[in-house]
Amino acid sequence: MAIPGNLSLTRRCFFAAAGLAVAAPSATLPVVAWSGDHATTGSTAHLPKAALLGDGGAKTYLLVFRTGQEVMKGLLAFAQKHGLTAGHLTGIGAISGAVVGYFDPQKKAYLRIQEKGQAELLSLTGNLALFDGEPFFHIHVALGLRDASTRGGHLFEAMVRPTVELVLTTYSRSVRRKIDQDTGLPLLDP
Asked: Fewer Cβ within 10 Å of end Cβ, the chain: N or C?
Protein backbone atom coordinates (compact mmCIF):
# COMPACT_ATOMS: atom_id res chain seq x y z
CA MET A 1 0.00 0.00 0.00
CA ALA A 2 1.42 3.37 -0.96
CA ILE A 3 1.08 6.34 1.38
CA PRO A 4 -0.20 9.39 -0.53
CA GLY A 5 2.12 12.38 -0.83
CA ASN A 6 4.98 12.70 1.63
CA LEU A 7 3.06 11.79 4.79
CA SER A 8 4.95 9.95 7.49
CA LEU A 9 3.59 6.54 8.43
CA THR A 10 1.77 7.35 11.68
CA ARG A 11 -1.08 5.12 12.87
CA ARG A 12 -3.59 7.74 11.72
CA CYS A 13 -2.03 7.98 8.24
CA PHE A 14 -1.83 4.20 7.96
CA PHE A 15 -5.50 3.74 8.81
CA ALA A 16 -6.56 6.65 6.62
CA ALA A 17 -4.64 5.23 3.68
CA ALA A 18 -5.98 1.74 4.39
CA GLY A 19 -9.52 3.12 4.60
CA LEU A 20 -9.12 4.81 1.24
CA ALA A 21 -7.78 1.60 -0.24
CA VAL A 22 -10.79 -0.31 1.09
CA ALA A 23 -13.26 2.32 -0.08
CA ALA A 24 -11.78 2.39 -3.59
CA PRO A 25 -10.33 -1.06 -4.33
CA SER A 26 -8.07 -1.46 -7.29
CA ALA A 27 -9.76 -2.91 -10.35
CA THR A 28 -6.73 -5.14 -10.87
CA LEU A 29 -7.15 -7.04 -7.60
CA PRO A 30 -9.08 -10.33 -7.81
CA VAL A 31 -12.17 -10.94 -5.69
CA VAL A 32 -11.29 -13.52 -3.03
CA ALA A 33 -13.93 -15.56 -1.20
CA TRP A 34 -13.47 -18.39 1.29
CA SER A 35 -14.68 -21.84 0.30
CA GLY A 36 -14.13 -24.58 2.84
CA ASP A 37 -10.54 -24.48 4.04
CA HIS A 38 -9.10 -22.51 1.15
CA ALA A 39 -9.66 -19.26 -0.72
CA THR A 40 -11.10 -19.27 -4.21
CA THR A 41 -10.93 -16.42 -6.69
CA GLY A 42 -14.16 -14.97 -8.08
CA SER A 43 -16.53 -17.30 -6.20
CA THR A 44 -19.97 -15.82 -5.54
CA ALA A 45 -21.47 -18.81 -3.73
CA HIS A 46 -21.12 -17.14 -0.33
CA LEU A 47 -22.05 -13.56 -1.22
CA PRO A 48 -24.64 -12.19 1.23
CA LYS A 49 -27.73 -10.19 0.35
CA ALA A 50 -26.73 -6.54 0.43
CA ALA A 51 -28.26 -3.06 0.40
CA LEU A 52 -26.64 0.37 0.19
CA LEU A 53 -27.74 2.12 3.38
CA GLY A 54 -26.71 5.64 2.47
CA ASP A 55 -24.19 7.70 0.63
CA GLY A 56 -23.67 10.58 2.99
CA GLY A 57 -26.99 10.98 4.83
CA ALA A 58 -25.89 9.17 8.01
CA LYS A 59 -26.41 10.86 11.38
CA THR A 60 -24.41 9.96 14.47
CA TYR A 61 -25.70 10.43 18.02
CA LEU A 62 -23.91 10.18 21.37
CA LEU A 63 -26.34 8.65 23.88
CA VAL A 64 -25.45 8.81 27.58
CA PHE A 65 -27.52 6.83 30.08
CA ARG A 66 -27.34 7.45 33.84
CA THR A 67 -27.95 5.37 36.97
CA GLY A 68 -31.41 3.83 37.11
CA GLN A 69 -32.16 4.01 33.38
CA GLU A 70 -32.81 0.82 31.41
CA VAL A 71 -30.84 0.69 28.14
CA MET A 72 -33.25 -1.21 25.85
CA LYS A 73 -36.28 0.86 26.89
CA GLY A 74 -34.27 4.06 26.43
CA LEU A 75 -33.04 3.05 22.98
CA LEU A 76 -36.56 2.22 21.83
CA ALA A 77 -37.93 5.52 23.19
CA PHE A 78 -35.11 7.46 21.44
CA ALA A 79 -35.70 5.70 18.10
CA GLN A 80 -39.47 6.29 18.29
CA LYS A 81 -39.06 9.96 19.26
CA HIS A 82 -36.69 10.63 16.34
CA GLY A 83 -38.36 8.37 13.74
CA LEU A 84 -35.23 6.22 13.31
CA THR A 85 -35.51 3.16 11.06
CA ALA A 86 -31.96 1.87 10.50
CA GLY A 87 -28.54 2.09 12.08
CA HIS A 88 -25.79 0.49 14.12
CA LEU A 89 -24.43 1.19 17.58
CA THR A 90 -21.53 0.50 19.90
CA GLY A 91 -20.97 1.30 23.54
CA ILE A 92 -19.33 0.78 26.91
CA GLY A 93 -20.19 1.54 30.52
CA ALA A 94 -21.28 -0.15 33.72
CA ILE A 95 -24.52 -1.78 34.83
CA SER A 96 -26.10 -3.10 38.02
CA GLY A 97 -27.88 -6.03 36.39
CA ALA A 98 -28.88 -7.44 33.02
CA VAL A 99 -30.86 -10.10 31.24
CA VAL A 100 -28.90 -11.70 28.41
CA GLY A 101 -29.90 -14.49 26.10
CA TYR A 102 -28.57 -17.48 24.25
CA PHE A 103 -30.47 -18.72 21.19
CA ASP A 104 -31.22 -22.44 21.33
CA PRO A 105 -31.75 -23.56 17.71
CA GLN A 106 -33.44 -26.85 18.74
CA LYS A 107 -36.07 -25.02 20.82
CA LYS A 108 -36.15 -22.03 18.44
CA ALA A 109 -36.16 -19.77 21.46
CA TYR A 110 -33.85 -17.66 23.59
CA LEU A 111 -32.79 -18.93 26.98
CA ARG A 112 -32.86 -15.86 29.24
CA ILE A 113 -30.13 -15.57 31.84
CA GLN A 114 -30.31 -12.97 34.60
CA GLU A 115 -26.98 -11.42 35.52
CA LYS A 116 -27.27 -9.94 39.01
CA GLY A 117 -24.92 -7.36 40.47
CA GLN A 118 -22.50 -4.79 39.21
CA ALA A 119 -20.69 -5.46 35.92
CA GLU A 120 -18.55 -3.54 33.49
CA LEU A 121 -20.16 -3.23 30.08
CA LEU A 122 -17.04 -4.18 28.14
CA SER A 123 -18.69 -4.07 24.75
CA LEU A 124 -22.14 -3.42 23.36
CA THR A 125 -22.74 -3.73 19.65
CA GLY A 126 -25.82 -4.05 17.54
CA ASN A 127 -28.13 -2.73 14.88
CA LEU A 128 -31.47 -1.02 14.38
CA ALA A 129 -34.11 -2.01 11.84
CA LEU A 130 -37.89 -2.02 11.51
CA PHE A 131 -39.94 -5.04 12.54
CA ASP A 132 -43.71 -4.86 12.06
CA GLY A 133 -43.33 -1.13 11.39
CA GLU A 134 -41.60 -0.40 14.73
CA PRO A 135 -37.92 0.22 15.59
CA PHE A 136 -36.20 -3.01 16.66
CA PHE A 137 -32.73 -3.16 18.23
CA HIS A 138 -30.69 -6.37 18.01
CA ILE A 139 -27.85 -6.01 20.51
CA HIS A 140 -25.13 -8.24 21.93
CA VAL A 141 -23.01 -7.51 25.00
CA ALA A 142 -19.91 -8.67 26.82
CA LEU A 143 -20.01 -8.10 30.58
CA GLY A 144 -16.97 -8.03 32.87
CA LEU A 145 -17.64 -9.42 36.35
CA ARG A 146 -15.89 -8.65 39.66
CA ASP A 147 -13.64 -11.73 39.39
CA ALA A 148 -12.51 -10.63 35.88
CA SER A 149 -14.58 -13.34 34.20
CA THR A 150 -16.89 -12.41 31.36
CA ARG A 151 -20.48 -13.16 30.41
CA GLY A 152 -22.21 -12.24 27.23
CA GLY A 153 -25.04 -12.77 24.85
CA HIS A 154 -28.08 -11.17 23.30
CA LEU A 155 -29.20 -8.19 25.40
CA PHE A 156 -32.79 -8.07 26.66
CA GLU A 157 -32.35 -5.66 29.61
CA ALA A 158 -29.55 -3.68 31.24
CA MET A 159 -29.94 -1.41 34.26
CA VAL A 160 -27.38 1.41 34.19
CA ARG A 161 -25.03 2.17 37.10
CA PRO A 162 -23.38 4.70 36.83
CA THR A 163 -23.30 5.25 33.04
CA VAL A 164 -23.62 3.64 29.63
CA GLU A 165 -22.18 5.59 26.72
CA LEU A 166 -23.32 4.67 23.22
CA VAL A 167 -22.65 5.92 19.72
CA LEU A 168 -25.60 5.37 17.37
CA THR A 169 -25.15 5.93 13.65
CA THR A 170 -28.40 6.03 11.68
CA TYR A 171 -29.12 5.77 7.98
CA SER A 172 -31.57 7.51 5.69
CA ARG A 173 -32.75 4.24 4.12
CA SER A 174 -34.99 1.96 6.19
CA VAL A 175 -33.95 -1.61 6.90
CA ARG A 176 -36.57 -4.23 7.67
CA ARG A 177 -36.72 -7.54 9.47
CA LYS A 178 -38.98 -10.42 8.61
CA ILE A 179 -39.60 -13.75 10.29
CA ASP A 180 -37.26 -16.48 9.11
CA GLN A 181 -39.22 -19.72 8.65
CA ASP A 182 -36.31 -21.96 9.76
CA THR A 183 -35.58 -20.22 13.08
CA GLY A 184 -38.70 -18.20 13.84
CA LEU A 185 -36.47 -15.14 14.38
CA PRO A 186 -36.99 -11.67 12.89
CA LEU A 187 -33.90 -11.52 10.66
CA LEU A 188 -32.65 -8.64 8.53
CA ASP A 189 -34.02 -8.58 4.98
CA PRO A 190 -32.01 -6.08 2.90
From this structure: N
12 and 89, same domain (yes or no):
no
Q: What residues make up the domain containing 26?
A: 1-47
Phi, psi of 149 (to 5 degrees): -85, 165
Amino acid letter, 63 = L
Q: Is residue 86 part of a domain?
A: yes
Q: Is residue 54 part of a domain?
A: no
User: Is 0.70 topped by the overall pTM?
Assistant: yes
Model confidence pLDDT, tens digit, residues 151-186: 999 999 999 999 999 999 999 999 999 999 999 999
In degrees, rounded to 5, the angle at the alpha carbon of residue 36 between the alpha carbons of residues 35 and 37 is: 110
